[in-house]
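Input sequence (165 aa), recorded before submission:
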Amino acid sequence: MPYVPNIARRFIVIALACAICGGCVPRDSYDFPNTLGVLPPQKPTPLWLGTIHGAGSAESGAASVSPSQIPGWEHVLVSIDDSPAVGGMYNWSLRSGSCGAQGSIVGPADRYAAFIVRADGSGGAEAVVPATLSPSASYAVVATPISSGAAAASSACADLTLSSM
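Predicted structure, token format:
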């Protein structure tokens, strides 16, 4: 048997160990580098989007839900435009169900702080709630006036649909 120095033996053992460990890594993982050594794009982020519609008024706006940086929590946003209730306040929340058939509030109700409509008729708020939304369920963001400004306002709602970014 030919003489092999200790350094060469160690190199061969390390190379074999790396080859064995590398074979165990799933190749379809988002975290596995491609042949160029570059990580592929990040996994798609689930994003729930909806357009705010007022009940019988000119209100418009948008709502969205996306995963928070905290695992198991969701980041919820709502914005209202063209509200006639300048100076008025809205309570809002993410609810299970749809605008037509609203269910319970998702997460603790005290996580959704009321917001005020500014002079230009816009307003909005955001909340981070401990929840994970199910792709098979339906959700809606509902904003209800609690005090009116110059004109009476009605409830505004957005049915959310699942997409990804």
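Checked by second reader. DSSP finds one helix and nine strands in the chain.
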